[in-house]
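Hi P.,

Sorry for the delay on this. The queue was packed all week, but I finally got your sequence through. Input first:
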Amino acid sequence: MKFLWNPSSHFNLANLFTFVNITAGLSAVYFITQNNFIAASILAWIGGAFDIFDGKIARKYKLSNEFGVQLDSFADFLSFVLVPVFFVFQATYTTQLEGVWFFVASLVSIYYVISGIRRLIHFNLHTDAGSVSNYFTGVPTPLGAILLWLVFLANTYTPLPALLVIALMLLIGWSLNSTIKVRHP
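Then the structure:
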């Protein structure tokens, strides 16, 4: 069990938490494809919780390494970029749009995914393993996911039009790579 506390182990405790995040994200995608949004929601929030703890564990026990940084970004891409886009796409765009607006929504979804992956790659290239700054430049992908989640809920439980959902997804996607300063928790 020494591997759990070894910073060079790919299966240290922090990375195991990240693997749970990945598992939750993949499972959420499956449940979204089955239109089971409650199970997908629970799994998305579980993934988010494990994302919080993997970083705290890595810093507390000095388990941070380059592999963990890359793994965490992969998990963030899955849980905080793809899952929320799939939620909105499956629940809103496929049920409320057709024709040219469905095509536009598809392009905006792709834009959001590219914005999210660009942000994560940029973050990795400009961050050292184990370091934490006071501010993020641009909206971090977990916050982007929460904002997109609120848009999803607003569309589901209020008369928020699908065209406004498209505009908000575009705005949140833009904010991921903006110069907006967001305080690190």
